[in-house]
Amino acid sequence: MPRIVPLVLPLSVLLASIMTFGSLAENYEFAAMKSSGISFQRSMYSITIFIVLLSILSFFFANNVIPYAEYKFINFRRNIAQVKPAMAIAEGQFSEVGNYTIKVEKKTGKKGNFLKGVTIHRKLDNGEGSTTVIKAEEGELVSSESSNTLKLVLTNGNYYEDIIPKRYEERNKIPFAKGTFKKDVINIDLSKLNQDNMQNVDISNTNTMLNVNELRFTIDSLNKNYKKDIKSYAENIYLRTGVANTFYGVPAMLAKKINGTNLLQNLSDDQKREIFKIAVNNIENTGFSIDSSKFEMESKSKNINSHWIALFDKFMIAFSCLLMFFIGAPLGSIIRKGGLGLPIVFAVAIFIVFHFINTFGKRVAQENQMSAFLGVWMSSMILTPLAILLTYRAINDIGGMVSFDVITEPIKKLFNFNKTAKSSAVDLSDLESNAAQEPKQYLNPIENITSYNKEVKITLVLYIVTLILSLILVKIQADSLKIITGLSLIAFVYFIFRTQNSINEIANKTGKTIEPGILISLVVGFPFYIFIYFYNKKVLQELDSK
């Protein structure tokens, strides 16, 4: 399908760049280049130009080729329903044919026109929702190439239909009708689906078939219609109250002076009861009207958001090629591995993160929980700092990016995996009685400072992640996001205690009190942690220099 290309292209660029630059680094080609005076950025120059051209080409492809291919693909799929109707219905899944959604368990016959285990959902006249379900043991498709009608003959089945009462109070009972049949014939109109000239098919409401200019025009029209509908609906609710026509046609001579500020005190008890009754009925009718129009307004809002997403997505595809290159190229030179082994692992892992964030952002944006721009570009915004960091480290020849000691060492310490090493160290220290009598200020705190630096980096990352998730949680009340934020907060508090423990050990060995402690951030407030972090960092740098 055409829509798969935007997913494949960034992954291909990422994998190819990791494999290429990883192979060059593994074979010491970069070392030879640097000895000859060729820097890393100069070696990337020609490939960067190619990636820029590829990004421009990908935008042209997303703006022109994909919409046209999607247009042809969907209309060609619809035209199959007339020539070979059985091809329009797939086994084991629901297929849309006209105003019907059909699912069959098995197809037999030379043309696949004999069906078994048929389930049909019939849509409403407006094409939204379904209140009728038909289930049959067997069925047969009968059609002619010269006819715009598809005939479906069903045998031995049941018929179910949800009945929607006119009175809103009776809808909670969920009434329905049920019937059985030995033979039933359904005629499906294909005149709207099968057009000999596919250029005449109306595609104005399909965002995947439009280019940038068409999307801008369509979005402008949809926004105008949406605002017009809201204004019309508000006026309709106002007119329903009858306020505008209350004194229409009443002669001025009938007007009387009202005593006091309370209008009800000038009326009789019967008139008051009548007024309250009318007010309650108006409120109930207005509430029912709002509930019935809510789904329609939400559907129109989602349609507008989907068009905005399609517009921004065309530019994001082009940028993602550049982004994946500046992640893959420096990462390959750092890990120094080419071929199809480790590069595939890194490429797939990075792309899964990219695709997950991209899909999550689009879904949330379509539900109107955030702007379409932020939803589409969220994945690029999150991975761009990674690309900058990797490129910086590759240019300055800073290695050690694949070391996971910063993650594994705290876990080992937590579960005492290095207990044997510690025990042996204690036994050796016991043999030296003089060392046990040394004052605390002569003990070496470098090991504790190193441990603190590792733990405080993890704590800082968890602090930033928790802060970002908390800000997103203010706008998006999703259960999964609440769980992730809670886990991040728990991990942050855990490493707060670990860093405080390291500070206490440093203070014991140096004889200097380091205040304020990290734990005070749990008392004064979560946002103040960043100030305490930089203060303690400055104090420990002074100790380390001494």
UniProtKB/TrEMBL annotation:
Example GO biological process: lipopolysaccharide transport
Keywords: Cell membrane, Membrane, Signal, Transmembrane, Transmembrane helix
Membrane disposition: Multi-pass membrane protein
Protein location: Cell membrane
Source species of the chain: Rotaria socialis
TM region(s), chain numbering: 49-69, 315-335, 341-360, 372-395, 456-474, 481-497, 517-536
The protein's name: Uncharacterized protein
Residues in the signal sequence: 1-25
InterPro entries named among the record's database cross-references: LptG/LptF_permease
KW Transmembrane (keyword) present: yes
One GO cellular component, as annotated: ATP-binding cassette (ABC) transporter complex
